[in-house]
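note to self: dont lose this again. the chain is below, predicted strucutre after it. 123 aa total, dont forget to put it in the shared folder this time
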Amino acid sequence: QVQLVESGGGSVQAGGSLRLSCAVFGYIYSSYCTAWFRQAPGKEREGVAAIDSDGSTIYADSVKGRFTISQDNAKNTLYLQMNSLKPEDTAMYYCAADYGLCGGSWFDEYNYWGQGTQVTVSS
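---
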């Protein structure tokens, strides 16, 4: 059973930074893709960034140059460093995972999801 547990959300002023973490439990295969998604009230869920076990990454255009996705394999933890935050980044952030390599693209669906962590950016 794969479990994902996010942490690190909070409230910050525009221009500030936050780092989200996602602890991953229960992976049994060496090839995987993990990703961050977000959903703001009244909006559809959108992909923010993804990384696979080979290190290939993809970012949404809206966060390129401001957010960085990374992983610590020894700790089985996924990170999202968010800099230069904007009010429009306010959303619930979720980590997601599935087996297989993303190869710098988005999966159509992810089978494993965390509970989410709230990020609020004030102007």
